[in-house]
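Students often ask what a holo structure prediction actually looks like on paper. The answer is less mysterious than it sounds. You provide the chain, you provide the ligand, and the output is a string of discrete structure tokens encoding the 3D arrangement of the protein together with adenosine-5'-diphosphate.
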Amino acid sequence: MNYNKKTVKDIDVKGKKVLLRCDFNVPQDPDTRAITDDKRIRAALPTIQYLLEQGAAVIACSHLGKPKNGPEEKFSLKPVAARLGELLGKDVIMAADVVGEDAKAKAAALSAGQVLLLENTRFEKGETKNDPALAKAMADMAEVYVSDAFGAVHRAHASTAGVAAYLPAVSGFLIEKELEIMGGALANPKRPLVAILGGSKVSSKIGVINHLLDIADTIIIGGGMAYTFAKARGGSVGKSLLEADWLDYCNEMTTKAREKGVSLLLPVDTLCAAEFSKDAAPVLHDVMTIPEDMMGMDIGPKTIETYTAAVKDAGTVIWNGPMGVFEFPAFAEGTRAVAKALAETDAITIIGGGDSAAAVAQLGYADKMTHISTGGGASLEFLEGKELPGVACLLDK
Ligand code: ADP
Ligand code: MG
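The corresponding structure tokens follow.
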């Protein structure tokens, strides 16, 4: 996959109408619909401000939530328009629809320096089907397409990919940074490249493990998936998270690592609990001999020592998936120690995955990382080496 894509800096937008796909899928209070975290709106500001400074008129669009049956007030982007207006310090004009009469009229009347926000793209049934008629109707309102919704680039929808068939398409600053840092780490990493993979399930990370085995020097396994690996190697894992269908796969990955000369590190010790509870008392066990009535909840101190040492001498570290059930303080130490090691290393540090990003933020290390990907599902597919439709559709440099 080519990550070298044209950006807003490579195209003339002066006096033009720019359709800008943003990720305004913000969390909201279920009752009042007040936005509870405006991080995604703030993240869009640099691209919007740049376009306005260049003399463009911005027609922003996004999805919000999962409306299934056309327009629904609770999925309206109106609260986003209000917040975006406050942050920009200027009026954001809200359209009543996506490509209907109101949107078309307001887009036609829009002048340089103004911002229009279309309604939730998923109010149109054709959005998730990547309907060419919808894509063309959106494109007809503008002269240039800019995509800055990294969180949605793994989806081939009308507003994330289809529209690029009808307009010159470039990336905004958010996608540019994702491609530069994550794409760079995958295509041409500063070595040694260490990948730390954790989280709950092997089955959700198979593509990531397989792809990273092709490019990494060291792969570190933690989290719930470590127990399926331990079992596959003949261990007893008690009540730990286990995916019996994936035992063979774990063995295949172990063999692949050996053949490729990749060092595959598994936990040696693990903090266990008698039940999945935040009040459970942690008990330390060897990862290969977990008692029948116990479950592995975090990596143990010996494992922490090996894992943090591997990070110290790395050139690049890619981290996806917590080392344990970090939501419970008694089982957060493994994740905390790895986060701290990443914060202290000189390596390029990249965090992909929604829960991993949340863990790093919760532990207070967010500003110490080189890059925290803004897309959960999108960053996983990126790490799997898959083609991302919302990136592939942009013009090559
Ligand atoms: P990401 O969103 O970063 O890709 P995942 O969604 O794969 O990460 O996994 C995150 C979840 O994995 C967390 O909620 C965490 O509690 C859980 N987890 C980590 N270790 C264990 C374990 N030993 N047993 C059960 N769940 C675990
Ligand atoms: Mg997750």
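The chain has a mean pLDDT of 96.
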